[in-house]
Amino acid sequence: MNPEIARAIDDVCNSLDTDELRRAVSRLLYNALNNQFRTSDILSVIELMQSEDNDA
Amino acid sequence: MPEAQTKVKILGWRYENIRGLETMDVNLESQDHTPYPITLIMMPNGQGKTTTMELLLAAFTGGAEHWGRDQVLELRPPGSTANSGEFQLRLLIDGQRFVVTLELDYQTGSASYATTRIDISGGKEPGHNLPSSLKHVFKDQFVKRFIFDGELVKDILNGSKDEAEKTIRYLHNLDRLEELAVAIDHVKDDMQRERETASRTDRGLTRLRNQRDEAFGQMRQLQTRLAQLESQFNEATTQLEQRETFLQHRLAQSEQLQRRYEESQRQLETVRRDLVLKGQAAIASFREPTMANRLIFSRLNQLSSRLQRLKLPESTSRQFFTELAEEEFCVCGRPIRSTERDAILSRAESYLGHDEYGVVNAIKQEIRNSTYDDSLTDTINNLTELLTEESRHLSELRRIELEQENSGDDDVRQAAEERDVLRAKLTSLDEKIPSFQLALKTAKDNYESLQRKFNEATQTVEFIRKADKLKDITRQTSAAALRNLKATIIENTNRRIADVIHLEKISVEAIDGHLKLAGKGGASQGQSLAIAYSFLGSLFANSAFGLPFVVDSPAGPLDLEVRHEVATMLPGLFDQLILLVMSGEREAFADPFYQLAGVQFLTVVKDSSGPHCVAEIETFKKFQGGKEDI
Fold first, then answer.
1. Interface contacts A/B by beta carbons within 8 Å
2. Overall average pLDDT of the B184-202 stretch
C-alpha cells in the first residue's frame, strides 16, 4: 500500500470511536483499494456502527 | 518508492493478418532476454501507429471482447481472404512471462482472448488471464495513462482540463473508493427494497419511491447540465486568456498604443476601486430611512411628534387587561363575571403588548435622535459620476483595441474577433450558471426531503444514517489520500524539473485538476512538455506498479529546439520507454538517443515480402516514410 494512502486511512479512521470500528473500517477501505471487498463487509461495518451507538 | 511494486515490462508483440501491418514481429528483448530500457520504433504515418496503440490497449485491458463487428473487421487487411487475425503481446510480470493473444474472427466479426503463462502452466488457456493483482487494475482509463497518446501531455497543464488529477486517481486506484461508495448506495437500496417488499400492500410507499426516483433523475439532469456549462465556462476562460495574452503581446510591440492602453487600464482600476468603496458607503446609508431624502426625514419627524403626543401609559397595555380579567372586581368596582371576563380578554388584543410597546418607543427614540444631511445624495451623485467615468475608460480601451485591430494585422483581427465572441459567450454563461445552481439546489432539497420521507416510511432511517456516515468516511479517505499524494508528487516532480530545466526556476505550485505553475510567468512549449513528462515520471515512480511507458508521437507538434529538450529528459523518467515515432519526428528528437547505451532502434519497412521490422540504427536514421509506404 502506498504510504500516502495508508496515512490517509489512518488519519480518517483515528477519528472513529472504538478500536473495533477503526479496525473494521480500515480493513474495508484497504480491501476496497485492492478490489477485494464484499457487500457483506459493508453490512458488517454498518451493523457495528449501529450496535456501538446502541451501547453508547 | 512504494514497497512491493508489481513490475510489468513489454518483451514484444506480433501481428498476424492485421491491416497495414500484415504479419510481423516486434521484438524488444536484448540478447540477455531482458527488454531494452528504451526502444524507438519508426513507423510510417497513418494506421500503423494508431492500430498498434489500439491493439496494445486492448491486450492490456481485455476490452476487445466488447468490440462491435465493424471494429473487428476494420483490422482485416484490405482484400485479404484470411478468416482470422491475431495480436500477441509478450509481457514480463514480476519476472514471469505471459503472452496475451487477442484473436480476431473475421468471419463472425468477434474478438476473444487466450493467455499463456509460460513460467507457470505453460499452455495456452482461453480468456484474458493476467495475474489477479493486475486484472482489476488494467481498465481502459488506467492503461491509457501508460499506453499514452503524446497529444494528451498538453492537457496536463491545461487549466480547463483535469487530466493531471485524473491520472493520479487512476494510477493509485482511488476510483475504487468511489466504487465502494457506490456499493454502499446499493446496500442502502437493497435494504429499502427488502423493507418495501415486506410491506408490499402499501401503495403510498410505491408512490413515494417513484417521486423520489423522479426527483433524483431531475437532480442528475441538472448536475450534468451544470457541469457542462461550468466546463464550457472554464474552457472559454482559458481561451479568452490565451487571446488576451496574444493581443497584449502584439500591443506591446506598438509602444505608443501600449502606453495609452496601460494608462487607461490603470485609471479604470482606480475608478473600479472607488466604485466598490462608494457603493459600500451608499448601502450603509440606505439602512437609515431618515437619510433617504429630506421629505421622508420630515414626515418621520411628524410621526415621531404625534407618537409623543399619543403617549400611552404603560398601564393601558395588553398585559393590564389580561391581568384585570383575572380579578374578581373591575377597577370601577363592578364584579367581573364570565361575560365581562371574555369581553375584556378579547378586547385586550387591540392594545399593544409590552414587546410591541418597546418597539414603538425605540422607533420614537431613533427618529428623535436622527439628523438629516445630504451625504447620501452626494454619495449617489458620486457613484453616477464614477459609473460614467468607468464607461469612458472602457470606451477608450475598446478604441485602442480597435486601432490595433485596424493596423492591418490579420492575426490580431482574428484574435480580437475570437476574443469578442468569447467575452459574449462568457457573459451569457455567467448569467445562465447561477440559475442552474439555484435550480440544482432546489432539486437537491426536494430529492433529500423525499429520500427522508422514504427512509421513514421503510423504517430504515438509522441504517441509512450509518451507511451515509460510512460513505462519508470513504470519501474523506479518498480526499485525504489525494491530498497526500499530490504533496509527494509535487515534490518529486519539482526535483525532476530542476534536473532538466536549468536556465529558469520553474516549479509546480499545486495540482488543481491540472498542474499549476508557481508565479505568474508561463512556460515555453518545450518546458511545458518537460514539466508534464516530469509529472508522469514521478507519478509512475510513486505508484504501486512499475509500468512501461508507450508514447505515440512524443515530439509530433514540437519545434526542433523543443524536441531536443524533451528527448534529453525522457530517458531518465521511466523504467521502460517505447516511443512510436514518424520519420518527420526524427530530426532533433532522435539525436540524444543515438548517444545513449541500451537503446534499440527499430524501423518498420515494407518491401516485396510485406512489412517487417528492421533492428538497425542506420536504417532508422535513413528511413523516409510517409503514409504511402504502408
1. 85
2. 77
Determine if residue B119 is left, alpha or beta; phi over 0 gives left, psi from -120 to 50 gives alpha, anything else beta.
alpha
As a whole number of angstroms, the distance between CA B94 and CA B234 comes to: 43
- Tell me whether strands B124-126 and B147-149 are parallel, antiparallel or unpaired: unpaired
What's the pLDDT at B522?
Answer: 62
Touching check for B82 and chain A: CB below 8 Å? no
Residue type, B19: R
Q: Provide, as residue numbers in chain A, all residues whose Cβ is less than 8 Å from the Cβ of B187.
A: 39, 42-43, 46
Q: What is the pLDDT of residues B440-453, one digit of tens each?
A: 999 999 999 888 88
Chain A residues close to B462, C-beta within 8 Å: 50
ipTM for this model: 0.95
From chain B, the residues in CB contact with A41 under 8 A are none
Suggest the residue from B464, B477, B488, B543 to mutate for an interface test with chain A (most A CBs closer than 10 A): B477
What pLDDT is stored for residue B629 in this prediction? 36
* pLDDT tens-digit map of A7-30: 999 999 998 888 999 999 999 999
Contact A14/B at CB under 8 A: no
Nearest 5°: phi and psi at B545? -130, 135
Residue B226 has pLDDT above 50, yes or no: yes
- Looking at residue B352, the DSSP 8-state letter turns out to be P
- Give contacts of A2 with chain B, Cβ < 8 Å: 2, 172, 485, 542-544
Computed over every residue of chain B, the mean pLDDT equals 84
The answer to whether the Cα torsion of B107, B109, B110, B115 is positive or negative is positive
Contact B485 A2 (CB under 8 A): yes
Q: Which of A3, A12, A53 sits opposite B473 (nearest CB)?
A: A12
Cβ pair B34, B573 in contact under 8 A:
no
Q: Do A4 and B180 touch (CB under 8 A)?
A: no
Q: Is B86 left (phi over 0), alpha (psi -120 to 50) or beta?
A: beta
Q: Is some CB atom of chain B closer than 8 A to the CB atom of A42?
A: yes
The pTM (predicted TM-score) of the whole model is 0.59
Cell of B74: 476494420
* B483-509 average pLDDT score: 85
The answer to whether B115 touches B517, Cβ cutoff 8 Å, is no
Residue B485 in this model has a pLDDT that exceeds 50: yes
Residue A33: other Cβ atoms inside 10 A? 26
With CA atoms as reference, report the closest residue to B598 among B205, B6, B36.
B36
Most confident of B75-84, B154-163, B249-258: B75-84
A 10 A CB-CB count for B183 gives 18
Contact criterion met (CB < 8 Å) for B176 and A43: no
A2 to B467: CB separation less than 8 angstroms, yes or no: no
